[in-house]
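Q: Structure tokens for this one, please.
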Amino acid sequence: MKKCSLKRVVSLLLTLAFGLCFSLSVPVQAAKRCVLSTITKSSGTRTLSTEAGNHDPIVLVHGLFGWGNTEIAHSNYWGGTDSLRDLLTEKGYTVYTPTIGPVSSNWDRACELYAYLVGGTVDYGLAHSRKYGHARYGSTFTGVLPQLNDTDSHLKIHLVGHSMGGETIRMLAQLLENGDADERAAGEANTISPLFSGKCRHWIDSVTTIATPHDGSQFDNKKYKIEPLTHQFIAALAAVQGANIDDTNLGLDFKLGQWGIEREPGESYHSYFEKVMKSKLWAKTKDLSAYDLDTDGAAVLNAYAKAQKDIYYFSIACTDTYRSLTFPHYQVPYANMNPILLHSSLYMGRYVNYAYGHVTIDHTWWENDGIVSVRSAIHPHSGSSDSFNENYGTALDGSYQFKPNTQKGTWNYIEKIQKTDHINVVGQQKNKQFLQTKFYQLAGMLESIPE
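A: Here is the predicted structure, written as tokens:
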């Protein structure tokens, strides 16, 4: 497998960083468990009742470059100027929005998500930490749902991941249900995290991925430079938020403490960002986001993180391109696409790769949302043995329903959201009411899953 060049890393990370400044994470707080009812297809209006339903908490997991509520201005990853967590909570749902490593590997992020949910100190695993050369232990969490690990508990959760968050929740499901053989072989039984034991209670009800690059992203721009893009990012953020934000008061944390890379007290964001991006770490390890998001790296992840037979898997794709009329009919972005995604979208809309030893990329990858191809978002292909429910069908009428032919352990493709780019589906700067309704409908569908 090829190593991830610094320029490639900066290209991918900064493209998402520019856009995701419109949509950042919200505070992590526990909400009361409520008794729920159904949701109307047209408006998303929901009335609380005592009707039976699936009341499991919903956990929204951010993707690459996700932020916490105190890190950038007063905006949310999930919902932009509004908080989807708060909106869903107001309708009676129990929703959590964890903040995990924004550029870490899916393995490390899954370990952090596990600790966030059940509590305790993050354990990245003895074998894993030795293999990649970083600390075994990370931050300590109190746990928002510690009862998940109780053997006599019946509580389950719905995991919803945007972008790389979809890969992360797949990894968590794999580890929870199967553990890891290398970790079990590396240490004594009493020192192994329950996450790697293969003996955890199965507490994931469903996995839903939104615009997730299951097969990686073919975008690979080698022209970006660190220095000007750092300043562009800060300027773009300040302009969008209308706030006095500069590289001295931005609180973004890359959460790379396991690698010994941390922001020092009083250190400017500019200095911190350069320290992270100029680290030799990017060139020497596959244990970071850039490798997992690469088409070859995603194939390795797909071979490891399989669909589990007792979990419902759903996928949602986004598209903001159209087929050009002239041969060879490249995919071209619509005018409404976020300007910072235009370059990547145009590149993806015509890119092919038939090189031996790499994932084959042809015209079926061209339709995209600016970062992720529709093909990649539907379900894992490359390196994967997962099955796909071809008869499930897409929600062409715009409604989300739990259908009789929904299958566990296989991918059920819900729909392709039209004229919606990778950023706007969560940032929601445009078509806010339409996209909020999509999330109301998704929550309603998850609620209707049989217990």
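A few notes: The chain has 16 helices and eleven strands. Confidence is low (pLDDT under 50) at residues 1-7, 18-50, 220-243.
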